[in-house]
Amino acid sequence: MKTNLVYIAPFMISVALMAGVAAMAWPHHGARGRRAFILFCFAAGYWSFTEGLLYLGFDIEINFLITCFQYLGIVLTAPTFLILSCIIFGFESWLKPYRARLLYIVPLFTLIAVWTNSYHHLFYADFYTIESGPFPMLGLHHGPLFWVSVGYHYLLLAVAFFLLLHQFLTSSGFKRGQAGVILTSLFIVWVANGIYITGHSPVRNMDLSPIAFSFVALSFAWGFCRYNFLDIMPIAKAEIFDGFDDAIMVLDKKNRFVSINPAGEKLIQKSFVDVSGKKIDEVIDEGTGLVLFQNTISCAF
Predict the structure, then answer these.
(1) Do residues 207 and 196 lie in contact, with contact meaning Cβ atoms separated by under 8 Å?
(2) d(CA 61, CA 48)
(3) For residue 53, what are the contacts with CB-CB under 8 A and spacing of at least 6?
(4) Is residue 58 within 8 Å of residue 66, measured between CB atoms?
(5) Residues 138, 67: contact at Cβ < 8 Å?
(6) What's the predicted TM-score (pTM) here?
(7) How far apart are CA 109 and CA 143, in angstroms?
(8) How many Å apart are CA 74 and CA 152, to the nearest integer?
C-alpha cells in the first residue's frame, strides 16, 4: 500500500489544485468564462481523482468500473477547453451557443458507449490484469469507438491550439502573454497523452493526462490573477465598450487591431476575428470612405 501512495499522491495534489482555482473563480458571478472555467476544473479534477483511485489496490472488476465512471471527466475536458479558449480570447462569434452544445454530442455518445460496452464491446474489447509493474494494473484492449472518441478530442485540442497560436502570433501585451502560457501547458498535455497512448507511462497504462490538464487550468488561473479577467471592472468596461454606439478600434504600437466593438465591425463590415492582428491599413482602404489620422484612433500598449 505504501508503494501505491507514491503514485496516488500526484493525482490527489492535482485534485486539490483544481478545487482551489475553481473556488477562486466561484465568487465572480457574471464574469465571462467563469462557468466554463469551473466546469473545466471539475472535469480535470474528477478525471484526476478517479485515475488516482486505480492505484488503491482494488480488484480488476472494480478498477474497470472506476474507469467507466472516469469518462465523465475525460469527455468534458477537450470541448470545455475549446469553449473557454474562445471566450477568453474573443472568438465567441465562431462559437454560437448552439454550436457549443453540439460539441458535447460526441462526448454524450461516448458515455453511452462506455456504459453499454458489455453489450457490444466496441469501446473496450476486453480488460485484463497487468502483472509486470510494481502492483497489479488494469489493462484494456481498445475497440474502434475508443479511437473515434480519441480522434474527436484530439481534433478539438488541435482547433484550440491553432486559435491560441493565432492569438500569440498576432496579438501583443497581456493577450500574447496569456496565449503563450496556455500554449505551453497545452504542449504538456500533448506530451502526457502521447506517453499514455504509446505505452511509455512510468507504470504501464497509467494516464498522466489529467495532471497535465491541471497545468492548463493553472495557466488560465494565472491570467485571471495577473490580468484581473474575473474582476467586475473589466466586465463593466467590456459591456460599455460593446454597447457604445460609436465605432471604437483599439490598436497596438504597430497599428495592429487589438480589439474592435460591434459598431466598429459594422462600420468596416468585418468581424474582429477577420481583422485581429492585422494592420489597420491592411483592413481599411480609401474605398471605405473613412479618413484615418495617425495615432488618433489607436490606443498603444
Answers:
(1) yes
(2) 20
(3) 66
(4) yes
(5) yes
(6) 0.74
(7) 15
(8) 12
